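User: When convenient, might I ask for sequence and structure tokens for a protein?

AI:
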Amino acid sequence: MKSKIVVSVLIFVHIISSPVWSDSFYEQVANYLRNRIEASGTPPVLSVGHEKINASIVLPRFYEKRLYQPAWIDDDGILDTVKELVGVLRSADREGLRSKDYHLTLIADILTSIVKEVQQRQYLNPRKYVDLELLLTDAFLIYSAHLLAGRINPQTIDAEWFANIRETDLADVLENACQNKDISSAFEKLMPPQAGYARLKRALGEYRHIASNGGWAQIPGPAPINTDESGKRILDVKERLRMTKELSEDEFHLPYFSKALENAIRAYQMRHGLEITGFIDEETLISMNVPVQERISQIEVNLERWRWLPQNLGLQHVIVNIANFRLDIVENDQIVNTMRVIVGKTYRRTPVFSDKMTYLVLNPYWHVPDNIARQDILPMIRKDQSYLTKKGMKIFDSWGADAREVEVATLKWSEINAGNFRFRLRQDPGPENALGRIKFMFPNQFNVYLHDTPSRELFLKTNRDFSSGCIRIEKPIELAEYVLKAAGWNKHKIEVALKRQVEQTVRLPEAIDIHLLYWTCWVDEKGIVNFRRDIYQRDKLLTEALQEGPPGLH
């Protein structure tokens, strides 16, 4: 079918100067186009055959602005921009999108029919050209919208995902593309500008190439496959690693466990976020046996997530990749510092959003959220009424400004449960404080922030989803030093303030962009493709949503 589209367009462009075309025909098409749009109702409902025109709001506005003059034909016939548009749409899969979402089959059928009519000197039906106009314009607008803001609105599938969707007037984008006779450049300007998006697109092509060659075979179990093993399973492992370039061509045919194989396994484990052992343990074997098509799908959903990001992430910004349990400080597109983080448990998931960090708090009090007090701390108090004292916590009779401290011993804890618990808990600054010594604030509706933690041993874990939604960071002093350097704060000044154990709010001299993201696949600056476990099952929801047809464009 794709070759049919191209042949149809090439033939038609070649014969557009046919004398069958008359000067009045262009105006007939314009009149029929105006009538068709004016009769579409409010809100507009347009279709061609059995296919819905999805850009039902933007498309009429585009034609109203140009007084219903066709965009894809002129007095001489069909424009070369049709061929260019069809060519771009045919390659939409390079962006992780689907060509079939853009009317290409019906466009090809109409073009083929028009070619036949012209060749045979038959009557030219202006309504058919109107159908072609509507399909081409809708295809341009929908593809533009997908490049600009993604196919899926993330909040329709995940209430904890708030995207800073890029916006522009797509009717103006199309008008400028028509005026400049340059469709490809218009689309390129709508793509995410960050280098990470381009790198991930290249990875998509590489993994599709692997798939086109049959993918990789399953490595038989059981695990482990140790350094003393030899034979066919070793060859299977080597072939698998050769396909994804961890192992060189001259190593993969040797049927024993070599040092090169151990290094290749370590490289594989590192880029998949696995425990680095140097042999095939059970988790590594499961990862290696994930089919290539699933990896392709993983790349596609993360390309979609790039399209949900702001146009400009900020010259200086902080990125937390929840799925990678890591924070990066980025300056002028270069990572200048990185650290491990601990994110929310699967039932208290860390949300996804972008915001601005505006201040930090040294030696913070922890005002315990009500749900944590009821669900986590109350059971501890009922077991041991000295728990609050041990943890440096105080209890107050309400959340109001006039709340009074209550003595723990005066309360009948046997009668207090999660349903009638009405108290406020506050933990004082100190070594037991759950927020550690610093918290970094970017006020948001989720009450999520970055903070230190006394539980340093958890950073040694490979998978670090242990928090109640906030993000615990490995190097709080280094992050504080970075965000406060313009205000004259250095490590020494920060440590002196921390030793006082007195709560102190410090405003940043300039707000810094922070992006809490969820990338289960990305390509780093060295060109290494990284995959991570879908800890919150967000990939699954997005994959299912992407299988549906395109939504309307408003």
In short: The chain has four domains: 2-184, 216-290, 312-365+430-519, 370-427. The domain at 216-290 is CATH 1.10.101.10 (Muramoyl-pentapeptide Carboxypeptidase; domain 1). Residues 1-20 have pLDDT under 50 and may be disordered.
